[in-house]
Structure to design on (147 residues):
């Protein structure tokens, strides 16, 4: 498959997710990555309750903000330079109305081991996929997913 075809497929996937978010009244989508390189502790999360803060939020999409997902994910289009602290969290203890794009995580994909792609309804993770990011890029591939 050509790169152009892969990008078009990714854009189509984001469009489908946007529709699903609106139809299901879903709160957000989160794309978190597990990095090899340490980052400040406050950037890491323990999404699975193991006691290990080893996941970093790479992208968070929020419903009903009229900002298309695909350009926001790819380029940060429509995302303010400074977003609310709640947009940088896995939990929903603080408010968030903007998408969040972690430029460092998405542009340094070679340092990512695994990716968690999660769908939240209100403050509950209801669907997720974990995949091996070492055989993908931030734009292409959700190979060998664990559901």
């Amino acid at each position: 498959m050509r790169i152009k075809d892969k990008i078009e497929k990714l854009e189509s996937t984001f469009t489908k997710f946007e529709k699903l978010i609106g139809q299901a009244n879903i709160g957000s989508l989160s794309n978190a990555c597990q990095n090899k390189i340490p980052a400040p502790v406050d950037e890491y999360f323990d999404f699975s309750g193991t006691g290990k803060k080893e996941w970093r939020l790479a992208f968070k999409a929020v419903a009903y903000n009229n900002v298309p997902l695909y350009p926001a994910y790819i380029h940060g289009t429509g995302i303010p330079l400074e977003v609310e602290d709640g947009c940088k969290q896995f939990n929903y203890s603080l408010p968030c109305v903007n998408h969040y794009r972690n430029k460092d995580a998405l542009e340094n994909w070679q340092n990512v081991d695994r990716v968690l792609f999660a769908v939240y309804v209100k403050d509950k993770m209801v669907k997720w996929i974990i995949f091996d990011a070492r055989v993908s890029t931030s734009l292409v591939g959700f190979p060998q997913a664990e559901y």
User: Anything to note?
Assistant: The CA atoms of residues 87 and 96 lie 5 Å apart. Residues 3-24 form the longest helix (22 residues).
